[in-house]
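In response to a reviewer's request, we include the raw inputs and outputs for one of the modeled complexes. The two entities were modeled together in a single run.
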Amino acid sequence: MSVTFVAKLWSGVAAAALLTVPNVAAAQAVARPLVVTPSPAARGLSKASPPPRARHSTGDPIEGVNRAFYSINTVLDRLLFRPLAFTFKTAVPKPIRVGLRHVFLNLNEPVVFLNDMLQLRPKRAARTAARFVINSTLGVGGVLDIAKLEKLDIPHRNNGFGDTLGRYGVGPGPYFYFPLSGPTDLRDIIGGQADGIVLPLAVGDPFNRTEYLLSRAVLTGLDQRVEADADLNALLGSAVDPYATLRSVYLQNRAAEIAEIRHGSAGASALDDPLADPEAPVAGARAKDAFDSTPQDPEPVAPPALTTPSP
Amino acid sequence: MTVSARTLALSVFFLCLAPTVAQAQDAAAAPVQALDDGLLSIMKGGKALGFAGRSAKIGPVVDRVFDLPLMTRLAVGPAWTALAPADKDAVTAAFRRMTIAQYAENFDGFTGESFTIDPKAEVRAGDRLVRTMLKSPKNDPVALAYRLRQTGEQWKVIDVFYQNSISQLATRRSDFAAALAKGGAKGGAKALVAHLDQLSAKAAH
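The model returned the following C-alpha cells for the whole complex.
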C-alpha cells in the first residue's frame, strides 16, 4: 500500500520521477517549442481548404508516430515486459536487486560529477565525488549506498548532459516516445548519448563491451519497470488520455529540473501556474498559448485596503 | 542612540504587523488543513467505510476546499468558451464526480502517513501557495503544494503541484485535449463527460 500511496496522491504523478532515468534527460517544450506548426500557405493549402487545425500538440511534432509507438509499447508491456519484470522480481531476492541498482547508480556518478562541473556547481560536484568514493570503498563497489545514510546525508542526485544543455539555454526540442525506453525529447536523446560514451571513452574495458551494455540495459530496465509499476498504474489508470498525460508529466518534470538548475531551487517558475482561465474577460480571449501565461483572476480585483498609519 | 531608537520603532512596527500577516496566512492554509484532515479520516476509515462511505465523507470536503468550477475551466482551457452552457455544467459535474471518486479510491487505508503544512503561505499574483509534505514511514517525503485563490471570503484550492514541479491542472489539460478536439465543439464535451464518468466508475470498481 505505501508505495502506491505516494503515487496515488493526486492520482499519481510520481511516475515521472521514476521514468526520468539518469541517462535519459530533458524538456521545456511547453514553454518554448522548437517546432512551430507551419502556416497554411507553407503547407500549400488552397483557399478551399478548411481552416488549419493543429494535428499535434505543442512540442510534439510527430505525435502520430509517437502515439503509434505508445500503443505498441502498451501491448508489448502487457504481454512481455511487465511479466518479465515481475518474474525478475520473484526470482531475484530484494537485497540483490537493490544492490544491482546501487552498483549501476554508482557507476554513473562520474557522469554526474562531470556535469556538476560543467554546470559550474563545484560544491555539488564535491558531494558527488565524495559519494562515489564512499560508496565505491565502504559500500563495497557501490553495492551499498552508505553515503545516503543519515549521518553522511549525501543522497544521489541525477545529472547528465541533457541537463547541462538545458543549463546553457538549449530548449527541449521535439518530444519522442520510444517503445521500451519511454518518453524523452531531442535534448535528452543527445544528452543520453553523451552520457553513455563517458565511461567507454574514459575507462574502456569493460564499459565498452556489448555484454556489459546489454546486461546493464536489461537489469536496470527490469528493475525500473517493477519499481514504477504502482505509480504507472495510478497515473495512467486515472487518465482520459494516458499518452498525453505521460507526455505532460514528463515535460513538466524536465522543465522544472532545468529551471532549478538555471534559477535555483525555489521552483518558482514551475509553481507559477501556467494556465489561464478561459472565462477571464481579456486574457481568456487570447488564450491561444495559455500554457505560458499566468492565470487571470475572473473575479474583479478588490481595491487595496486603505492603510491608516497610526501615529 | 538614533540607531537603536529606529530599530525599536521598526520592531514595534513589525510586531504590530505580524498578527495581520499570520491571520492572512492561516486563511489560505486552513482549507489545505481541512483537506488533509479529511483524507486522513477516510484513510483511517479504510475498507470498513467502503468506497461509498469514503465518497460520502470526502465529497463535502472536496466541495468546500476546491474551486471545482474554476478547476474545470482551467483544465478544459480555451475550448471552454465554445461549449454550450448545458455542456459546461455537465463537464463540471463529471469533473467533480471523478475528483471525489479518485480520492475515495486512492485513500483507502492508513499506514502511519502524516501531513505537515508550511504555515507561511506564499503570495503569487494574487493567489496563495501553501506548501505541504506528506510523510510516510516507508517512503521518502513527498512535496505537495496547493495554489489557492480567493473567491468572496474564502480561499479555495485551484491547483495541486506534485514535488513542486508538476501541475495537476496542466496535466489534466493535456489529458482532456484529445477528447475535446475529436468531438469538436458539440461532441467534445459529451466525449469528455463519458470518459470522466468511465474513470469514476472504474474508481468505484
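As requested, we also summarize the result in words. Chain A touches chain B through 56 residues (CB under 8 Å). Chain A has eleven helices and two strands.
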